Amino acid sequence: MTDTTFTVTDVSSGTQRDEASVAFGGDTVTVEGTIWGANGCKTGRLLGAEYDAAADELTVTVGTKDREDAGDGCTQAIVEIRYRATATFEGGLPGTVVVTHDHGDGGKDVTTATQ
């Protein structure tokens, strides 16, 4: 793995959704998903992107954090945080990708994809 990126693409009111999809293409794995935040001050963050060469498996872990510009006035409603994470590889893509969402409780697997 030579590079990773993470971008929050949208934050809006919603429900406790945890979902993700994985796309393999060229030298890049792209994960697009939705993680929920406890209130309007939350945004997403990449907690880790770990490649295990022996297992030929990439694990992408996404969590939430307080927005830096949040201030003191946060809505008390659940928000859905949509994101895109990419991992670039040299010499071939991993055979398996596991996406995990962690809300501070140790996380849970949301999606597992194989090429």
Q: Count all strands and give the number.
A: 8
Q: Any idea what the radius of gyration is?
A: 15 Å
Shape: elongated
Number of helices: 0
Q: Strand order within the widest sheet?
A: 1-6-3-2
Kindly report how far apart the N and C termini lie.
16 Å
How do the SSEs run, as a string of H and E?
EEEEEEEE
Helix fraction by DSSP (H/I, runs of at least 4): under 10%
- Indicate the mean pLDDT: 94
Major β-sheet, in short? 4 strands, antiparallel
- The share of residues in extended strands comes to over 45%
Structural class: mainly beta
Number of domains: 1
Indicate the low-confidence ranges by residue numbers.
none
What does the model show?
With 115 residues, this protein is an all-beta fold. It has one domain (3-114). It is 0% helix and 63% strand. It contains no helices and eight strands. It has strands at residues 3-13, 19-25, 28-37, 42-52, 57-66, 79-88, 96-102, 108-114. Strand 2 and strand 3 (28-37) form a beta hairpin. The protein is elongated and about 50 Å long. The model has no long low-confidence stretch (mean pLDDT 94).
Summarize the structure.
It contains no helices and eight strands. The protein has 115 residues and is an all-beta fold. The chain has one domain.
Outline the secondary-structure elements.
Layout: E1 3-13, E2 19-25, E3 28-37, E4 42-52, E5 57-66, E6 79-88, E7 96-102, E8 108-114
Salient structural properties:
0% helix; mainly beta
